Amino acid sequence: MPKHYKFIFFVLFFTLFATVPTHAAIEDAIVAVVNEEVITLNDLKDYIEMLTTQMRLEGTKSGDIQQFMNDMAKNGLDKLIDDKILLNAANKNEIALNQSDPKGEEPRNNEIEAMVDMRLAQIKSQYKSEIEFLNALLDQGASVTDVRNRIRNQIKTKRLVDQEIRSKIYVNPQEVTTFYKNHFENFKKPERVNLDSIFIAKKDDPLKAKTQADEIHEKIKNGEDFKTLAKQYSQSPPIGIIHKGQALPEIERIVFNLSVNETSPVCEVDNGYYIFRLIGHAKEELSSLDEVKDSITNKIFETKFLEKFDQWLNKLKKEAFVDIKKNL
What we know:
Elements: H1 3-17, H2 24-27, E1 30-34, E2 37-40, H3 41-57, H4 62-100, H5 105-124, H6 130-139, H7 144-164, H8 173-182, E3 188-189, E4 192-201, H9 206-221, H10 226-233, E5 240-243, H11 249-255, E6 267-269, E7 272-282, E8 285-286, H12 289-319, E9 322-324
Antiparallel strand pairs: 1-2, 1-9, 3-8, 4-5, 4-7, 6-7
Helix pairs in contact: 1-4, 3-4, 4-7, 5-7, 8-12
């Protein structure tokens, strides 16, 4: 979409969602035509509301939803057009499959509906009861049918993308090895220590906390068991594994220089006092290819997928009739 059209759409979009009343004529304004389907400003509003409703029902964080809304304010029409083109291609694909294999039509439809049921059940599971779920739908101005239709369309589109793109991507083992050799820096494990710890909070009396920490430290020096004392006195779980650079520099200078099973002096932090015991210490090392080959394979696959998907979508766009109205 040309930049000045996007700007006009951006202004019109927020006019639509502002608190002042809007006229039906504005909402019915045609913003685009995709193949034989007209898209009005109201269609765009419904599309964005349905997507945000699904995100809320799925428990998406409010910050992520706001970020999505900001993106849709700028790119919503482009995304709706892409969705229309993809769904149109998916529906054509379903028709072609049914024509070439009529006996398989019912099993395929049943499989899709089973997947819709499963996804809907996953969404419902985030609510305490069916009533709470239905009330959430009501609050969003949506229905179960709306959600099922949206999920069904997503499944159809995904099936087509899997068929046309994902199934045709192959990651050669040599590609994984080459990527690994060219990106050693990405696979270094930083120096790290595994720590047991006892924590005494300062609360309202730092002096009392320091005295207690000193007494516990004295007991350790006198041979009492660290773990037993930790269970008895510590006000925080064990620190566990920390990587170089994760802790305060003054703490790291101490704990990274301990010997295994050695106990640190009492260490002060803002909110209390720590006593550490070193369980293990590992120097910086390079992860083996076996350790990271799956993540490398996934990264290469995803890169190939995005490239192929963009090429395929652009091809679909060129084959489709798309008319973005200039008189917004």
